[in-house]
Amino acid sequence: MTQHNHVPELARHLARIKRPNPVLWLYHWRYEILALTLLPYGLVSLITRLGPVWSLVALVAAFNWLFYWRAARRHLRGRLRAIVVQHRLRSGFAGARICTVDGRRPAILWTRPLDGDVVVRLFCPAGIGFEQIREGREQLAAACFAAEVYVDRHPKYAALVTLTVCTTPLEHRPGRAVPPTSVVPLRAHS
To answer: What's the pTM?
Structure first.
């Protein structure tokens, strides 16, 4: 590599990560803000319409329904995991220095749970590419408490990148894990 290739990388590591503006901050925390505003409102509305005893009965019935209906429980767990992954990815981008020279991080367009994994679509501003995100996969996986992060580029638009965050632990199969020729024996302690 020439000296010119090191300059943007050095500038990226020295750049201060930009904090989101207030509107973007509200968008990042939209699920939590909605939960903190709508849940108390819904609880007060339920108590005023049904009374305290029937409200308690309705809440217990709703929680039991959610607890025993496997598909609803799986859907709720997947959505909650997707929300946590969004927040962890934003901090992971900052920690792995996946940012532009002026400190802007990739924007998370949407997330969705898919068979135990979380699929995330990113919009990369000018200065961040597929290769930079692929090189930071290990840091992003550690930030998301994930086993692996797969990175795919969009076939048509270079600014769109898809991450698949594998939040479920990988299955360990002793017979297939490592071929015997690549096992290095450990030296005994002396």
So the answer is: 0.72
